Amino acid sequence: MPLEPPSTPWAFPSPVSAESDLVAVGADLEPGTLLSAYRHGLFPMAVDELPDQMAWWSPVDRGVLPLDGLRVSRSLRQSAAHLEVRVDTSFAEVLAGCADPSRPGGWIDEAIASAYTRLFELGWAHSVETWRDGELVGGLYGVAVGGLFAGESMFSRARDASKVALMGLVDLLRDEYADRRLLDTQWQTDHLATLGVVEVDRRVYLKRLERALALPLPVAFAG
Fold it and tell me: How many Cβ atoms are within 10 Å of 176's Cβ, its own excluded?
């Protein structure tokens, strides 16, 4: 089971009344702070305008993937047949793939990478990986707290490799609590929309989050 870290000394404001996606700035990236943020519906992402402070976000329109809403095309199923899905066998490599500075819009810096590595060591962060012929070709990572899986980033070095990792994650979350589990993608992008990600109002998200946090972890992430 995950190890609960020392509690954070920081108090996050409620995102309910925030006027924009950006809710707060400051605090730190200690494990207790990160877990408190996720439990309050926030996540960290730095912005260039605040180079010395962390920004904490809770989108007004939150991206979520309903577990019964994943869109799997015929070509994606064909790709999946040639890839193996593994969990938590190469977290550092997945993180490095997501943080590749050559990728457009990269935001994962050394501080973020270090923070999520510590969460992984404590049992809270996880990687879902796709392998082909013994080689890591794609994957995603995120944070599991109760019935919440907060997806952070994904990468691909082969056709559909990150999508197959997402398929694998959805399969891991489909258990007797699937109707109350919450797969959070932060925002709905055009790419994620093609996979079935939808937007929900922030207040709706926070209510669903409260219910999800009371659930047990999926077996794959329970240690």
Answer: 8
How far is residue 147's CA from residue 54's CA, in Å, rounded to a whole number?
26
Question: Predicted confidence band at 106 (pLDDT cuts at 50, 70, 90)?
Answer: low
- Provide the pLDDT for residue 104: 66
91/195 same-domain check: yes
Handedness of CA 167, 211, 218, 90 (dihedral sign): positive
Quickly list DSSP for 142-157. EEEETTEEEEEEEEES
* Structural domain contains residue 126: yes
